[in-house]
Amino acid sequence: MTQTVRPLYDRLLVKRSEDEQTTPGGIVIPDAAKEKPIKGEIIAAGLGKPLDNGSLRPLSVKVGDKVLFGKYAGTEVKIDGNEYLVLREEDVIAVLEG
After folding, report:
1. In angstroms, what CA-CA distances link 64 with 30, 38, 87?
2. What is the pLDDT of residues 10-68, one digit of tens each?
3. Please, what are the domains in the chain?
4. Dihedral Cα 33, 39, 45, 48, nearest 10 deg
5. Which residues, including other chains, have CB under 8 Å from residue 26's CB and lie 6 or more apart?
């Protein structure tokens, strides 16, 4: 069964990018020695950040954007056997273009 996930408000569902498995010299990096990637692709996004007057400010990122985020940002979740990260728009450091 495949679930559809829609984050609330200014939250984003991000799939982390897989890093290289080997160094430029050809040395294989074991899973235990790897750091978690700090870049990924936005899979789903909420409708916007709620403001004090009750309206929503649209997000500055969209589904499909490749982004950089903080090393310890967000909450890890597992959906249909896949690992994702749920984070707020303010945790996004930059959008990768090109």
Report:
1. 29, 16, 15
2. 999 999 887 656 666 767 666 555 556 688 999 999 999 989 998 989 999 999 999 99
3. 11-96 (2.30.33.40)
4. 120
5. none
